[in-house]
Amino acid sequence: MTAMQILAPELDFLPLPGALAATRVEVTQMQLLGLCQAVRDNGGRLVSLWGEDLRREHGGFRLCTALQYGLSLAIAELPLRADAPTYADLSAIFPSAARLQRATYDLLGLRALGGDARPWLRHAAWPADVFPLRHDAAAAPPSAVEPPPSAYPFVRVTGDGVHEIPVGPVHAGTIEPGHFRFSVVGEKVLRLEERLGYVHKGIEKRFEQMSASDGARLAARVSGDSAVAFSWAYAMAVEAITATTPPARAQVLRGVLLECERLANHLGDLGALGNDAGLAFGLAQFSRLKEDLLRVNAALWAQRYPMDAIVPGGLREDLRAPPSALTSVLHAIADELLRLREIYDNHAGLQDRFMGAGTVSCELAMQLGIVGMAARASGQPQDWRNEFPVPPYDAVDLRPALRTQGDVAARVAVRFEEALASIALCLQWLAALPEGGVSTPLGAAREGELGIGGVEGWRGPVFVALRLDESGRVRRCHPHDPSWHNWPALEHAIIDNIVPDFPLINKSFNLSYSGHDL
């Protein structure tokens, strides 16, 4: 019996196929509310929320909610009538549900009764009565769109000396678009409200009717800096539906790919954080180390960012160079990481900017349900590499890098520790790399079966839910980025800080726009 079944013994949880050993359960409105509340009351969290159009098959819709409690993962499925696709608001239980619910309405027309009903993704790009993820919606946007509203209804802060600073959605440099509305007194921030959705690309719609292999290429491009994580999660979902187990060598090399992706992003962020705090030396050194890693990626996988290395059934191809090409670079990076950590820790100017900035307390982190590296910097030990350890993680002892301060300094410290741990894992796996092939033919797809996949990406858990049709083509694919849960935390982290510290605090989270705006 799973922890979820112990929590809700009145519900009929059925096992789902695949490496995550998850379950699914069909629920009523009241049962969904009760299950979510029980999960929340016992320290669990919302993983994702999405909808499905089943009018062709069953005459209605379905709301899917992925929940984690301890070491149990469950998908609660709520059938909804075609003429009244509404459900009870979950944001009072899980704050991170609010934006997911808004996006689900914009894309599919499933309305949460209560909570925030403002549009999230639409931005007047299609009429209010068009829902792109419905089967009868055109793949291309309509030529006549709704005129933009006069103003988005941001929450206003009033009082003596309070004024607003609008930033974005277009920013200097090459970062992606997002609007940040600061309410300030002088330079002190009283409130921040984000408006995202500007990089909505229709990826979930594009998945429809793709073959499983073509879908893998699209999954790898959901968010460029998490290409390996999304590729692996997608492949895991396909392998669950087709009862396919990748070869041992491919499983180990998937772990190496994911940890190198984590390492590359931590290296880039550590340099950028040093630069944002006035230490250009840090940017130069970490940029050099990241470049060394990207070059060896190109030698091993023919891609600096290995977007197409992981495919359903294993890997696209084996290593193009000996493993020693990577191990030598990893040893060199580890040695320099130790020296650079000492410089960062003892640099008075950096520590003055880092310490106490952008604090998210342990209590607030738990309340908001933040995930991944940011959660571990606020005392939350969650890590899917330990909680749902698929090979090769099932054979290693991985201790989460934890801090309790929850500030920029804590997030920097966690990055250093995780970067060093990633190197150690890669060296351990490469030293005992299994022989053999790297791919296995896929089995026959189970029509309509739900397949899920998930791995701990560098930001947090990357999750994919997938259904295929009788021909093995994608019926519905929902990729979920951990940034959904952490963007609201940034709004809290900036409160009582000064406006000039926002770039530093924002970079300490480094959340995804692209992976969030599907």
Query: Helicity level, as a percent range?
Result: 25-40%
Note the gap between the termini: 35 Å
For the record, the CATH class of the largest domain is Mainly Alpha
Main β-sheet, spatial strand arrangement: 1-2-5-4-3
* Strand-pairing-aware structural class: alpha+beta
Beta-strand residue fraction? 15-25%
Mean pLDDT: 94
Q: CATH topology of the largest domain, what is it called?
A: Cytochrome-c3 Hydrogenase, chain B
Unreliable spans are none
List keywords for this structure.
single chain; 518 residues; Beta Polymerase, domain 2; Cytochrome-c3 Hydrogenase, chain B; 2 domains; five-stranded mixed β-sheet; 15 strands
Give a structural overview.
The chain has two domains: 3-113, Beta Polymerase, domain 2, CATH 3.30.460.80; 203-516, Cytochrome-c3 Hydrogenase, chain B, CATH 1.10.645.10. It has 518 residues and is α+β, with helices and mostly antiparallel strands. The mean pLDDT is 94. A hairpin with a 2-residue loop joins strand 9 and strand 10 (188-195). The radius of gyration is 23 Å and the shape is globular. The strands form five sheets. It has a five-stranded mixed β-sheet, covered by helices on one side. It has helices spanning 3-7, 29-41, 97-108, 203-207, 212-219, 227-242, 248-276, 280-301, 324-345, 348-354, 362-368, 372-376, 384-387, 408-431, 483-493, 502-509, and strands at residues 14-15, 23-26, 45-54, 60-69, 72-81, 86-88, 111-113, 162-167, 179-185, 188-195, 310-311, 314-315, 450-456, 461-468, 474-480. Helix 7 (248-276) packs antiparallel against helix 14 and helix 8 (280-301) packs antiparallel against helix 9. The chain is 38% helix and 17% strand.
